């Protein structure tokens, strides 16, 4: 379709967006996506789209079916065995003469052990089976194995002549009297028979399998006929007769439509006929699975192909920009067929009602009872019918929801999971997998009960809030909106600002907005007006209050957001030049930053993309995110030089305390600010200080603990009097780097601002000393109960200290795969210190530093229980928004995994158990580790 879509240059844009291109050309995407880029009179109704896609898939199914052929020949040959057994039993009834013979033989490579005796009987049926023996030499060589004949034999003589070389391993007796018919020995029906040959079979030959080779060949054949069909279809749609006198075009259009109808009908009849033959005689399970694999490969191929067409042909490898908006009539986006829109709207309203959701939950509950019945009593034909009826209802519900919501229905991962479970269950039922075998799979659908119940409860929470004022109700609505996960960072920031303005009573404050299109005189006048307003308000009473996000700052940001994308493009170009990364790498990094507010963050992948520029890119992008560079006039080159100096100060030989750990801690802190909503408690200057503290908190870390430096009387320990040795060194070295004029990012700060930033950073980094763990945690516990906490600089500092402390020790809170990677690096750094201490004949600083005897999983469990978990429990009580990420899916799952893994490590002896108990006691005293 895409070739025709762009022929008319007056109405078709030349470079569409990627999603528009895919929705115009990919079968499945086009089926469920509205054609807003096409005039309403040229759009396809949904049912016509469905017919077109169905015909295309019928062509593919037809190609697969005719590649398979059918197994009618093999089926008929194998049915001879059943016939002969029936003939024998009818002839000798009620005598049980047709019994196992006890013989075995090997004939032309096929071994037969299930042989039964068929004594001579003078009737036509016996002679028919006797005649089957004449076909034995004529069977072809098996396609499965060239060393044997096709395994289609039915009967053999009851004795051997001794001169037939085709028989080996033959236990039949020698023939004695040639005048008497000795009868036959025949193969039982249950013995394996020849099957249709699949050259590239994948899977279990006796179970479910498919042919990957046939899938690719079928796609190649089907695509040719599909393109012919589409060409005829497009040609037909292009035939428009504007006059009743133009009979030629009318006849042509009618004739082509007839051809399409005939082709569609013939294709349907052929595939029904061929599928029936395969289902009766051939490998039906392999046939349907091969078609399913071919369908998935074909759609994936189409997705990749059209993505390549869009990027390389339309965008010319990204050289051309999309110009879709210049050619689309805005009215097209909102105009659809009224009947379809009305039906969709009505169905959507019904599906949003609580009554529908409760009915859905009730139906799922009934299905749960059915699944438990299947698991307990087994399945039968009646239960199978009930099962497929349930699945049919679920599948219909998914189809309706997809039709109503289009591709938006699959933006939710649960809906994708739900659709996959139902579709797979439906397909497996028809290929012969029983209900009991799928019961556990379908039981997963019952998770929907929890999801639907949660949504219904959330919708009714506000209705049951009781009596409240308009002020309280408004704030409740805004907070509920803010908690929506689908909101962007910008939207959440705006809602935070609105809530803050309402709560602070600044709703009627006067402000002069800065307009970018005014002349210099007008801007100067506005600045003067703003100064007079500030002098007349509470802002004048606090020289640091303007650091917060006030109304003027908010209006500036709104004005900046409304400006064209040129500013954004300029910033991206600037950061690419300063950092020195390719456009492809920049694009990958921007995709990571789209999810920077989420808990999962793979710092290792980020480092692989950035390399030595990892800290520079990360801190510049975060400063851009919070607009810190503009607000405090931070020179971009100074920020780049400073962050490069910080990166160079981290030792790449440290397994754990390196630059990757620095950006990982900075991300956790950023997550607490964004998702944990710490922004409502701290100012932009605080955010700047917090991010700097995160990236320098382990600057120039030597890879050993404070205790090691103190025991060795290291020069750093002497310089800092054995107190927070490494933390003080991190701070002193980082601030020394700021003394270099090319690294000074604080050059445009006022003196008050500078000392506020420095004090905040110093206190935050010092709080990472584990010896101060109890003090840091105790301060937060005590201050937590203060009304309106935090309401001054001291309390804000306590909040920021605990935030960095948890970020620094937050590896056990991460997703399991990332946690165990960080855990291995942490333990390796401890082991390296243990190796050094052993080499220097020193007593080990801690027992868990001995790589020979330490159970790392038990050690980590103790670390979590003593250090991490107490902090997290009080932290999630303060910001419950992060509980699910860091506690439920983080800490609890990791603890359970550690317990399971610790059982796989041999237990220590009594002396080592004593050391383990002593280690826990030392941890409680704050002597476990530095990080």
Automatic annotation (TrEMBL):
This is Phosphodiesterase. InterPro entries: Ion_trans_dom, PDEase, PDEase_catalytic_dom, PDEase_catalytic_dom_sf, PDEase_CS, Volt_channel_dom_sf. It is a multi-pass membrane protein. The chain crosses the membrane at residues 53-75, 214-239, 251-275, 287-313, 358-379, 385-406, 413-431. AMP binds at residues 657-661, 698, 808, 860. One of its GO terms (biological process) is signal transduction. Pfam families: Ion_trans (PF00520), PDEase_I (PF00233). Zn(2+) 1 binds at residues 661, 697-698, 808. Keywords: Hydrolase, Membrane, Metal-binding, Transmembrane, Transmembrane helix. It comes from Blepharisma stoltei. The active site is at residue 657. Its EC number is 3.1.4.-. Belongs to the cyclic nucleotide phosphodiesterase family. Residues 901-931 are annotated as: Disordered. Binds 2 divalent metal cations per subunit. Site 1 may preferentially bind zinc ions, while site 2 has a preference for magnesium and/or manganese ions. It is found in: Membrane. Residues 567-905 form the PDEase domain. PANTHER family: CYCLIC NUCLEOTIDE PHOSPHODIESTERASE (PTHR11347). One of its GO terms (cellular component) is membrane.
């Amino acid at each position: 379709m895409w070739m025709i879509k762009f022929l008319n240059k007056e109405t078709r844009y030349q470079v569409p967006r990627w999603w528009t291109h895919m929705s115009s050309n990919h079968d499945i995407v086009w089926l469920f996506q509205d054609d807003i880029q096409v005039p309403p009179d040229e759009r396809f109704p949904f049912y016509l789209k469905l017919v077109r896609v169905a015909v295309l898939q019928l062509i593919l199914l037809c190609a697969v079916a005719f590649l398979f052929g059918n197994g009618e020949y093999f089926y008929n040959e194998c049915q001879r065995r059943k016939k002969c057994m029936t003939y024998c039993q009818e002839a000798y009834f009620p005598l049980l003469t047709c019994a196992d013979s006890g013989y075995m033989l090997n004939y032309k490579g096929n071994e037969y052990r299930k042989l039964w005796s068929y004594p001579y009987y003078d009737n036509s049926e016996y002679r028919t089976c006797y005649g089957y023996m004449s076909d034995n030499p004529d069977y072809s060589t098996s396609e499965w194995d060239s060393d044997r004949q096709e395994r289609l034999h039915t009967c053999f003589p009851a004795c051997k002549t001794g001169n037939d070389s085709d028989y080996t391993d033959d236990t039949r007796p020698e023939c004695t009297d040639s005048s008497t018919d000795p009868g036959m020995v025949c193969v039982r029906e249950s013995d394996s028979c020849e099957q249709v040959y699949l050259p590239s079979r994948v899977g279990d030959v006796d179970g479910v399998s498919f042919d990957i080779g046939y899938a690719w060949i079928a796609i190649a054949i089907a695509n040719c006929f599909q393109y012919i069909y589409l060409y005829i279809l497009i040609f037909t749609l292009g035939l428009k007769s504007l006059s009743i006198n133009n009979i030629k075009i009318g006849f042509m259009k009618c004739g082509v439509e007839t051809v399409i109808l005939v082709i569609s009908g013939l294709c349907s009849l052929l595939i029904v006929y061929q599928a029936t033959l395969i289902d009766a005689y051939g490998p039906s399970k392999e046939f349907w699975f091969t078609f399913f694999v071919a369908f998935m490969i074909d759609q994936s191929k189409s997705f990749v192909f059209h993505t390549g067409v869009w990027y390389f042909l339309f965008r010319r490898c990204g050289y051309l920009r999309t110009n879709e908006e210049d050619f689309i009539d805005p009215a097209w986006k909102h105009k659809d067929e009224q009947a379809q829109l009305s039906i969709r709207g009505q169905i959507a309203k019904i599906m949003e009602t609580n009554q529908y959701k409760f009915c859905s939950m009730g139906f799922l509950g009934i299905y749960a009872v059915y699944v438990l019945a299947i698991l307990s009593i087994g399945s039968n034909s009646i239960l199978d019918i009930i099962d497929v009826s349930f699945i049919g209802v679920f599948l219909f519900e998914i189809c309706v929801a997809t039709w109503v919501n289009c591709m938006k229905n699959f933006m939710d991962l649960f809906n994708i999971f739900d659709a996959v479970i139902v579709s797979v269950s439906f397909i497996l039922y028809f290929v012969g997998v029983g209900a009991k075998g799928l019961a556990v799979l379908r039981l997963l659908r019952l998770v929907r009960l929890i999801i639907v119940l949660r949504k219904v409860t959330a919708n009714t929470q506000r209705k049951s809030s009781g009596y409240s004022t308009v002020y309280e109700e408004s704030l409740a609505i805004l907070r509920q909106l803010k908690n929506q996960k689908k909101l962007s960072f910008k939207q959440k920031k705006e809602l935070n600002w609105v809530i803050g303005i309402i709560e602070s009573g600044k709703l009627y404050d006067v402000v002069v907005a800065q307009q970018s299109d005014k002349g210099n005189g007008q801007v100067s006048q506005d600045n003067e007006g703003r100064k007079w307003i500030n002098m007349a308000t509470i802002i004048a009473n606090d020289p640091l209050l303007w650091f917060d996000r006030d109304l003027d700052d908010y209006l500036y940001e709104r004005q900046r957001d409304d400006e064209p994308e040129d500013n954004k493009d300029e910033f991206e170009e600037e950061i690419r030049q300063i950092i020195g990364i390719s456009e492809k790498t920049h694009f990958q990094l921007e995709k990571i930053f789209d999810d920077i507010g989420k808990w999962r963050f793979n710092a290792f992948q980020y480092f692989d993309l950035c390399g030595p520029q990892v800290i520079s890119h990360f801190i510049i992008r975060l400063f851009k995110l919070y607009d810190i560079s503009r607000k405090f006039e931070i020179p971009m080159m100074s920020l780049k030089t400073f962050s490069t100096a910080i990166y160079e100060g981290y030792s790449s030989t440290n397994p754990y305390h390196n630059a990757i750990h620095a950006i990982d801690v900075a991300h956790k802190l950023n997550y607490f600010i964004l998702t944990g909503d710490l922004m409502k408690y701290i100012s932009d200057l605080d955010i700047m200080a917090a991010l700097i503290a995160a990236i320098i908190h382990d600057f120039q870390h030597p890879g050993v603990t404070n205790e090691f430096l103190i025991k060795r009387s290291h020069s750093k320990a002497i310089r800092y009097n054995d107190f927070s040795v490494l933390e003080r060194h991190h701070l002193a070295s980082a601030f020394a780097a700021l003394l270099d004029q090319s690294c000074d990012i604080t050059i445009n700060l006022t003196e008050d601002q500078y000392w506020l930033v420095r004090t905040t950073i110093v206190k935050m980094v010092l709080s990472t000393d584990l010896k101060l763990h109890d003090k840091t945690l105790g301060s937060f516990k005590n201050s937590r109960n203060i009304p309106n906490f935090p309401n001054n600089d001291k309390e804000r500092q306590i909040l920021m200290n605990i935030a960095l402390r948890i970020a620094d020790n937050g590896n056990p809170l991460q997703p399991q795969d990332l946690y165990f990677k960080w855990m291995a690096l942490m333990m390796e750094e401890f082991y390296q210190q243990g190796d050094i201490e052993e080499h220097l004949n020193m007593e080990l600083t801690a027992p868990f530093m001995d790589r020979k005897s330490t159970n790392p999983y038990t050690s980590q469990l103790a670390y979590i229980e003593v250090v991490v978990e107490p902090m997290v429990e009080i932290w999630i009580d303060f910001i419950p928004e992060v509980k699910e990420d860091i506690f439920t899916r983080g800490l609890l799952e990791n603890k359970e995994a550690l317990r399971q893994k610790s059982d796989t490590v041999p237990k220590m002896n009594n002396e080592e158990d004593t050391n383990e108990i002593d280690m826990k006691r030392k941890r409680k005293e704050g002597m476990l580790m530095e990080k």
